[in-house]
Amino acid sequence: MEVIRLHAEEQYAEEIKALIKEDKDEKPASWQMSPQQVLTYIMGGKTKKGVTIEPKYFGQRRLVELAIATLLTDRALLLIGVPGTAKSWLSEHLAAAIMGDSSLMIQGTSGTSEDAIRYGWNYAKLLQEGPSQEALVSSPVIRAMNAGKLVRIEELTRIPSDIQDALITVLSEKSLPVPELNMEIRARNGFNVIATANDRDKGVHDLSSALQRRFNIVRLPLPVDLEEELKIVNYRVKELQGFTSAPKKVIKEADIKKLITVFRELRSGQSEEGDIKIKSPTATLSTAEVISAVNSSQTMAHYFGYDDANKPIAESIVSAVVKDATKDQMILQEYLETVMKSRKGWSSLYKSCKEVLDGKG
Asked: Which of 63, 84, 131, 164 pairs as cysteine with 288 (C-beta 3.0–4.6 A)?
């Protein structure tokens, strides 16, 4: 059966296998490879036999070293950053490299219940037999504790604060009481938690100081410059296209640079040259949204016969930027007139964006 998306350990199985085979360094309990090989897997490189390891993260090496070092201790890891800083991406690949299993995951939302972190009950069995181990439904946290693996918690700050605090005992005592059965579940060697959190988006619940103290926090920044962001976008777009069999028209790198520039300028509130102040829209305009915009533009160009890449790019820009119909549209119009209009080589993109905004595209 074909699946839309493979887990990281499935997609990069050959790289992981090659790194494990050549690993001569000390491996911590339950880890399938040494910390040095985990770093190579994340940052990229070559094995001694010449197998190319693709980079999975294009940011600062020291941040990845800090993340790996944290997981070698008894403290949990919290990756913090604005949307699009590759928090989930890094979390998944760390779990894939260290444990060979990135599937133990809780997706945090405002509706996440305590059962998702602790345990639930099979109510049919509960009513029939009363509380028993057979009636207990294990959460991903319990399954990770029993197996000595890593569990990922995505968007921790979207989970209500009182539910978040269910983690405190797990992180401090490495055990989880089950009072209904007069027992506790104890974590095996290798167990730890990788959580991600967004510190800018709406709907965020602050972590209690008690919970914060049980995490080592690594803050992931946005790409430093346009070239770094271009590398990330090109890599991820190429990878996303690998999940579909349909061919795509490839948008030229010069056009992708323009799209990234638009997003960077609106995001930062100033032109790349630093000489023009710009109002920022309500949209985050993260690197993740750039990737989505490029992918959408290429898909539109392929299926709907656009010979001019500016038209689908303009559609993607307007779609990503204009979230508030009144405020964001005015901000984008002002950006077009004060920045894009006068830029050399940008006239076609300017006209296409104007047409889309005016409803003539």
From this structure: 84
In a domain, 160, yes or no: yes
Looking at the domain assignment, is residue 133 inside a domain?
yes
Q: What is the pLDDT of residue 246?
A: 53
Among residues 187, 219, 251, the one where a domain terminates is 219
- Spatial separation of the C-alpha atoms in residues 292 and 236, rounded to whole Å: 9
Q: Do 271 and 170 reside in the same domain of the chain?
A: no
User: How far apart, in whole angstroms, are the C-alpha atoms of residue 322 and residue 183?
Assistant: 53
Q: What is the 3-state secondary structure (H, E, C) of 181-196?
A: HCEEEECCCCCEEEEE
Q: How far is CA 53 from CA 39, 56, 83, 166, in A?
A: 11, 9, 26, 38
**Pair (32, 180) in one structural domain:** yes
Residue 347 maps to a domain: yes
Residue 19 contacts residue 40 (beta carbons within 8 Å): yes
pLDDT (0 to 100) of residue 174: 95
Has this prediction a pTM greater than 0.85?
A: yes
DSSP tally for the chain: helices H, then strands E: 17, 11
Q: Which helix (H) or strand (E) holds 175?
A: strand 175-178
pLDDT of residue 158: 93
Coil/strand/helix, residue 102: coil
Does the pLDDT value for residue 63 go beyond 80? yes
> Is residue 2 one of the residues assigned to a domain?
no
The reply to whether 232 and 215 lie within a common domain is no
Number of domains composing the chain: 2
Q: What is the pLDDT of residue 153?
A: 98
CATH of the domain at 105: 3.40.50.300
* Sequence letter at residue 345: G
| Structural domain harbouring 191 | 8-219
CA distance 125 to 142: 19
**Interacting residues of 204 by C-beta distance below 8 A, sequence separation 6+:** 157, 158, 197, 198
User: pLDDT, tens digit, for every residue of 16-36?
Assistant: 999 999 999 999 989 999 999
pLDDT, tens only, 325-357: 889 999 999 999 999 999 999 999 999 999 999
CA distance 314 to 351: 9
* Gap between the terminal Cα atoms of the chain: 40
